[in-house]
Amino acid sequence: MRTPDRILIAVALGLLSGLSAAWGFEGTTRNSDLVSPPPGAPPSGMTRAVQTDVPRPPAPIPRAGGAAAPAAIPNAVLPRPTAPIPSVGAPQAAPLGRPVPVPPPTAFAAPTVPITPFEAFRSGARALQAGEKEKALVSLEYAADQGVVAAQWKLGRMYAEGQGVDRSDIKAFEFFSRIADDHPDDVPGTSQARYVSNAFVALGHYYATGIPNSHVKPDIGRARHLYSHAAYYFGDADGQYHLARMMLDNGPFHDPKQAARWLHSAANKGQYQAQALLGRMLFRGEAGLSRQPARGLMWLTLARPNATPSESWIAESYDSAVKQATDEDRALAGDYLMRWMNTANAGDRGR
Fold first, then answer.
1. Which phi and psi angles does 94 have, rounded to 5°?
2. Average confidence (pLDDT) over 71-87
3. How far is 259 from 103, CA to CA, in rounded Å?
């Protein structure tokens, strides 16, 4: 188990242990206490093989709508460096008899030794951290144009959050779309696949709400497809959580039982929002689930330390559960929490 995970568990146990002296209460786990994983979903914590019976990614993400929609933003309108891009090939010798031109000073002058696209990405990331925005953009855009997925994803996040650039959801959408179009079948479990699956989730968010004053209109069906691909194929915990939320809504994809399964899968991977929502549902017996207050309190206890100030519903759900729980519920929740921690430790040792 990683150190941050140990700290999280220690905090969770501290929250729970202060509630009751009956810490050693012996509880039992019944099969009926557990929510089964979704049919066809890979086991939690295991490397997922490529599956052939899961929803395939949608067709290439459309960059433009109908005739009435504004034109898509082509790559050419994104900020581009005015300086020469560093060459990745061998340096060319100047023709005999001609002086070697001396390039003017630039924000990101070509180095004496050509750098690789990935080195450009790392240089851009360091420049961004140092506050050198122009140099960061030149380096990251060069790496992105050369197909470095991490650079494409980083630029998408920068435009989505306004980090070092003017915030632009449509530019973020373009970068995430490039990733999803080019890498829908990357092998799950790799470091690059994490960027790809996150891009699918980000695109799902954009289609769920639309982007004002753009060709990206709300399309709940496409949003579901994007979440599903991230959830099924990549086993992405965020994709599973948002797919579950969609299934809990009273809409065309309403399926509370399947939603609970996705929440359980995401919660076991440490997705704290899924832990909180599943915990609340189990504690109250919502969405057709049988009421299991101890297990619900366990999930809420795990989620509580990660909640941001804007996620008041998590803190409120936890506080409400604590007030209503019996001493027996709290003790059994502590037992479940210890078992969950031991299982996570065993999983880490087996990797």
1. -75, 145
2. 30
3. 59
Per-residue model confidence as pLDDT tens digits over 220-260: 999 999 999 999 999 999 999 999 999 998 888 999 999 99
CA distance 156 to 175: 5
Can you give the pTM of this predicted structure? 0.71
Round to whole Å and give the CA distance between 286 and 259: 12
Collect all residues with Cβ–Cβ distance below 8 Å to 334 and sequence separation of at least 6.
13, 16, 17, 20, 23, 25, 298
For the record, the structure tokens of 232 come out as 């099924």
Model pLDDT, residue 4: 54
Q: Which two tokens stand for residue 12?
A: 């969770």
Calpha distance 81→136 (Å, rounded):
10
Q: How far apart are CA 110 and CA 84, in angstroms?
A: 7
Q: HSE, CB side, 13 Å, CA atoms: give it for residue 327.
A: 6
CA distance 349 to 342: 11
User: Please, are residues 132 and 140 in contact by the beta-carbon 8 Å criterion?
Assistant: no
Q: Please answer whether residues 132 and 105 qualify as being in contact, where contact means their C-beta atoms are separated by less than 8 angstroms.
A: no
**How does residue 315 score in pLDDT terms, banded at 50, 70 and 90?**
very high
Which residues in 296-326 are b (16+ Cβ under 10 Å) and which e? bbbbbbbbbbbbeeeeeebbebbeebbeebe
* Residue-by-residue DSSP string for 93-147: PPPTTSPPP-PPP-TTPPPSS---HHHHHHHHHHHHHTT-HHHHHHHHHHHHHTT
**Whose CA is closest to 128, among 150, 155, 156?**
155
C-alpha 50/C-alpha 55 separation (Å) is 12
Residue 158: which of 147, 144, 146 has the closest Cα? 144
Distance in angstroms (rounded) separating the CA atoms of residues 233 and 236: 8
Extract the tokens encoding 248: 């809990």
The predicted pLDDT at position 173 comes to: 97
For residue 178, count other CB atoms closer than 10 A to its CB: 22
User: How would you classify residue 162: left for phi > 0, otherwise alpha for psi between -120 and 50, otherwise beta?
Assistant: left
What size, in residues, is the chain?
351
Tokens coding 4: 């941050």
Nearest alpha carbon to residue 44 among 282, 256, 267, 255:
267
Tens of pLDDT along 216-225?
999 999 999 9
